[in-house]
Amino acid sequence: MAEGGTVAILGAGMAGAAAARRLAEAGLDVRVFDKGRGIGGRMATRRTQAGARFDHGAQFFRAKGEAFRAQCAAWIAAGVAAPWGVEGREVGLPGMPAPVRHLLDGLPVSLETTIACIARGDRGWMLTDAAGATEGPFAAVAVTFPAPQVTALMETSGVALPGPERASYAPCWSLLLDLDAAPGFPETHLTFSESPIALIAREETKPGRAPGHRLVVHAAPDWSRAHLEEAREAVQAALVAALEARLGTSVRPTYAAVHRWRYAMVESALGHPCLYDPAQRLGAAGDWCLGPRIEAAFDSGRALADRIAADLTFGR
After folding, report:
1. Cis ω on the peptide bond leading into residue 137 (within 30° of 0)?
2. How many C-beta atoms surround the C-beta of residue 27 within 10 A?
């Protein structure tokens, strides 16, 4: 296989975006594929028909390491992130996907494209989507799905990439509420150690958000796991009741919805920055490699990009 060439990146969340930008900076062509309708993965924002916006996935991010700290500073300078509340806690601006979108700016991204199978031939990797269309060849493939989806793709494709099966996730049901009155607490968000509710966040307190009374409520992992396959209507009713019990008052939503995150938070990480097989030119990255933080996804994506770039540019 010739040196250089285009790298396929599967997943347009933080890990995929960080990998794509790093590879582009190394002078390599990239193409990003994602099954969703928008960029960001779990850094997600939902907009209602009435125009209300909810960050219904990750609520904020923090920087511990030098690389992510520098990136956060760049996002703030570019106007796509801003501090929220206590020092060191930041959010996307105007919504959580904005930093991911900034990383992918100018790079080719194919949305609503589910890659169902990958196959490696003499000319490189070919991708087949759920509709049967093929893309390629690609010099290398970087898979940045949640670990169980990486494993499923490898099994479907008859490809070996050991490791992702050792990572595990907790699920999360998210409740989105637009209220006709203030919820009765002044804090930007509240967290709880006991079920069924783990977090209540006030969306309107984030920078750049419209005024109003909007809540995002995250159910606790054990409650979410126990109710994972229940009907949305039942989950919504149960979480509204739990919220009222927690706040000690009734709530009157003008809009209510729930979203199920099957792979919400890493419970058991791999303990390595990424996976890469140079013989296949196939790798995987994500927060499941390092831990349950947006920074972990960023660091993992960059680590995989560095491995691929070193491989493809060797001898140039």
Report:
1. yes
2. 11
Q: Are 56 and 216 in contact (CB under 8 A)?
A: yes
AA letter at 18: A
For residue 36, give the 3-state DSSP assignment.
Answer: coil
CA distance 19 to 35: 18
Which residue stretches of the chain are H helix? Answer: 14-25, 66-78, 98-103, 147-157, 221-226, 232-247, 287-290, 294-312
Tell me which DSSP letter residue 281 carries. T
Helix (H, G, I), strand (E, B) or coil at 133: coil
Q: What is the pLDDT along the chain (316 residues), one digit of tens a residue?
A: 334 589 999 999 999 999 999 999 999 999 999 999 999 999 999 999 888 999 999 999 999 999 999 999 999 999 999 999 877 899 999 999 999 999 999 999 999 999 999 999 999 999 999 999 999 999 999 999 999 999 999 999 999 999 999 999 999 999 999 999 999 899 999 999 988 999 999 999 999 999 999 999 999 999 999 999 999 999 999 999 999 999 999 999 999 999 999 999 999 999 999 999 999 999 999 999 999 999 999 999 999 999 999 999 875 5
